[in-house]
Amino acid sequence: MTTELTLTNARIVLEDGVVHGAVLVRDGVIAEIADRPTTAGEDMGGDFLIPGLVELHTDHLEAHYSPRPGVRWEKMAAIQAHDAQVVTSGITTVFDCLRMGSDEDGGFEQGEMRAMADALAKAGCEDRLRADHLIHLRCEVSTDNVMDHFHEFENDPQVRLVSLMDHAPGQRQFQTMEQYTLYYKTKRGLSDEAFAEFCRRQQELSARYAKPHRDAIVASCAARGIAVASHDDATLDHVEEAIGYGIRLAEFPTSLDAAKASHVAGMSVLMGAPNIVRGKSHSGNIAARDLAAMGVLDVLSSDYVPLSLIHAPFILADEMEGISLSEAIAMVSATPAKTVGLDDRGRIAPALRADLVRVRRESGVPVVRSVWRQGMRVA
After folding, report:
1. Does the model's pTM come out above 0.90?
2. Does residue 24 belong to any structural domain of this protein?
3. Helix 112-125 to helix 75-87 angle, to the nearest 10 degrees?
4. Is residue 25 included in any domain, yes or no?
């Protein structure tokens, strides 16, 4: 039996502009786009109709599962709470980050993230989820047990993205010691002696494990057709390494040179939407608005604030000369989808999935009023 849905009197954000019209959905797929409102259908009241957002990097599930140090929440409850928040932020496809590798800053025991992935699969089978959930493995390559964790996901089709991380002092995100000291000494109350020993051990682990673990993980992903992301690239050498690995996504580059080189090399440069909303990086690195002004910002991620993913594009369109609303929305829909090979979504176009979001926004923070995934109302 054919099902149809018409959404009319909407400002439809297309790849090349905004039209005031209607969208016809048939059996979960966009069938037709009209450039004027129709007389029949659900009246959008002149609100924006945008593609469902595609989120590639969010640590938010982890925050629901471990809301306080040492606390573990029931997995299904954590998943459902996370799912509810992302979908009401306009996110219809979410890559849930699962941490691979435990260091002295904490982490999860072997088997915990595997159990979380199993719970995600079960939630999907039981029709508990409103967004489409996929998995992003965040691999801390400088840890001695990252491969043990990674091997637990060798045959998991949910895994569609893997990132290579090294948070040792002097590496990438923490090239200077000021922020590293804040993260690992001040917040943990370490003495000077204890902090010095901590740094020495982290640098030793990085020197021993980072390169062989990167090589092994990239080889595995290439064999399985999984997209790989670099993380916190800071130098041109880091970018050259990423090019050699065939990396598609450059997450959170920490220098202008690295961001520009990654973009020129054909990688999608990803920065945090909270960085756009706040106007600066929480860790003292480059401002995403600077990259946008230079034309080398390709993808936004909500990272730690889900609603920022729909807020940031409107800020860019309002405040950045030369960035249209269509171009800004593409950073949270079409480009992330294309980067990881999801060619069936991310745009409002015929034959694509009807993942759609109704947004009311005249000024300030946008309001998500309705969300459809494959033509079904989910929020």
Report:
1. yes
2. no
3. 60
4. no
